[in-house]
Amino acid sequence: MIDLSGQIGIKYLHIDTEERIIPNLTIDAIDQRILSELQQDGRITNHDLAGRVGLSPSPCLRRVRQLEEAGIIRNYVGLVDPAAVGLQVSAFIRVRLDGQDDRHLAAFEQMIAGFPEVMECYLMTGECDYQLRVLVASLAEFEEFLRQKLTRISGVSQVTSSFALRPIVYRTAIPVGPRG
Fold this sequence. Notes:
With 180 residues, this protein is an alpha+beta fold. The chain is 30% helix and 24% strand. It is built from 5 helices and 6 strands. The chain has a 4-stranded antiparallel β-sheet with strand order 4-5-3-6. A two-stranded antiparallel sheet has the order 1-2. A hairpin with a 5-residue loop joins strand 1 and strand 2. Helix 1 crosses helix 2 and helix 2 packs across helix 3. The N terminus is likely disordered.
């Protein structure tokens, strides 16, 4: 799809968490630069952002608001260093359930969403049903999480854990420009 400026754009059809379809928004190269800049510094002023992406402040703010309204920009957050707040142990846990029907999946997902230790949870294909990333302060706290929370969820039949020794690549910014 070609946008009005003649640059290649990406068309997004966004479905929000309530399964409503939000109208298409064409993301052009300027929007991609806006998204990249905001992912690097969510506290940047609109004036500085406009300068970095080559717009005046008013059109820049209008584009940011459109990206927010379309759900492409979902939120603004501060990234906290886990080690700085005492969360030294990063574990990856593969979970298998004894049933994969909608009832079992929904029950597991509802319970797991309430555990603050769980940073990420994915429904998987392959040998496990879910993969979790958990942050805790110590191995004792991990054991407590495992014994008192995770394995007490009805339907959990197998749990396999691995511990991260150190991060090699950790990104929070998603690639929004052309990939090649």
